Amino acid sequence: MNTPEKDYSHRGWIAALALIAVLGAVSFIPPQSLGGVKLRIEADTAPRPVQTIFEWLLRQDSSGRRAVVPDTVRLNPALVAIEQFAPADSGRLRAFYDTLLYARRPVRIAVLGDSFIEGDILTADLREKLQQAYGGGGAGFAPMASPLTAFRRTIKTQSKGWTAYNIMQRKAAPQNLRGHFFVSGWVCQPSEGASTRWENTDYRQRFFISPGDSRIELTLNDSLRREFEVEGAAAVRQVTVTAPHIRSLAFKVNSGTEGFIGYGAVFEADGVVVDNYSVRSNNGQAMFWTNPSVNAQVNALAGYDLVILQYGLNIMQTGVHNYTNYARQIEKMVVYVQQCFPTAAVLVLGVSDRSVKTDTGFEPMDAIPYMLDYQRGAAENTGAAFWPTCDAMRSLGGMEQFVANGWAGKDYTHINYAGGRRVAWSLVDAINAGAYEAHAAAEAARIRRQAEQAVLDSVRLLKIDRELRPVSAIGNLNTPRK
């Protein structure tokens, strides 16, 4: 039976909304190289102090997020666990679980991938279930402009006056823009008066930048307006709008468009935030074409707790079993992410299930187990965690069953929203299981500390008692015998 696909257009929460409009970058990370990839754009002089955060506060930030006990009830019948390879490797992931369980601030997750998650497929339901379990709201990142925004159901975007450039066609972008891509894969250049309006989401706002002096205008719910004077500087900026209810938000560049680069908006509230950074036809290589300085500056403003890498589907070929070179690329990708987002744990998703047409029908691609082994090995070599997406899909019948259920396209490669929901549920189950293990370990440690404290207290009491006994004995000597 086919399950009706969910309509996300009406969803909303009381929250704040994060807006990113970035122009240029000043490096926050030291110059270094990784496999020939330069990890910093050099600056001739040290940057002078510049205002990077602008606020429009219509209500106080809530601090109501509380510690959560993870639910052990699964959404899918079979648990496909997140794999960790050594105690040292699990440190970052344990920190993510602890943040998910106990932190009072937003918990931010970035999902970098290809067309498999385009249009917020999979990430929409990952976001929804995690927000239901751990709190939060908001649709995460939305670009300032993109020809693909119409495919996304979780937020409505209307853009005017922007020219959007995709990192996969970066050579078509003006020379001065090519070095400023963020991991979103998009940079947007405004003409005078360019604007973007986001609708049907109520969340928090975050980043923006301007190399020359500019004036930007924000409109909340099509009625309240506020203009900001922005002093020119090559640094990532942030505008934060906090309000009790955000039905729509518009961003407009009134002046200072020369050199201005817009990235987009992040919609969030206290709790879990999931940003979808999908780039069609990207096997992960495009990550190295992004500006690590911009990545690091955005991370300094937002701070990711988990980065998920979903790649490899475009690399697999029938009959090809050796993916040594691609495994090396994955290792470089993980290290690059660790350099740009040092606060984040990294989770490598193994390739999804895929079927190919044969003389007798469709059958699973023979390259899948080999690709999974190489991806798993790359994760282990770099201290990342690993989750086999294919195993999760096969626990639900595999790609042929997904197509039969209407959960995937007839190309036997790409899932749709209904299929993404099932894969997301399996990943949520895996995250919940990891969080529960972290919670149980923390509880065991707390009980152990209490027991140790009780023993320590009893030893102290015994010592005090022994110190007092001689006084009692002396007193007894002075007492006449009967």
Gap between N and C termini: 97 Å
Roughly how much helix do the residues carry, as a percent range? 25-40%
Shape: globular
Q: Mean pLDDT across all residues, rounded?
A: 83
Per DSSP, what share of the residues sits in E-state strands of 2 or more residues?
15-25%
Largest sheet: 5 strands, mixed
List unreliable stretches of 5+ residues: 7-46, 201-209
Q: Rg to the nearest angstrom?
A: 26 Å
Counting helices, strands and paired strands, the structural category is alpha/beta
Number of helices: 8
Pattern of helices and strands: EEEEHEHEEEEEEEEEHEHEEEHEHHH
Biggest sheet: strands side by side, in what order? 4-11-1-13-6
The quaternary structure here is single chain
> Can you count the beta strands?
19
Task: Walk me through the structure.
With 482 residues, the protein is an alpha/beta fold. The chain contains eight helices and 19 strands. The chain has helices spanning 91-102, 123-134, 292-301, 324-340, 368-382, 389-394, 398-404, 417-477; strands at residues 16-20, 33-34, 37-38, 53-57, 107-113, 140-143, 156-166, 186-199, 214-220, 224-230, 238-242, 248-255, 264-268, 272-278, 306-310, 345-350, 355-358, 361-364, 385-388. The strands form five sheets. A five-stranded mixed sheet has the order 4-11-1-13-6, with no helix packed on it. Helix 4 packs parallel to helix 5. The longest helix is centred in the last third of the chain and has 61 residues, at 417-477.
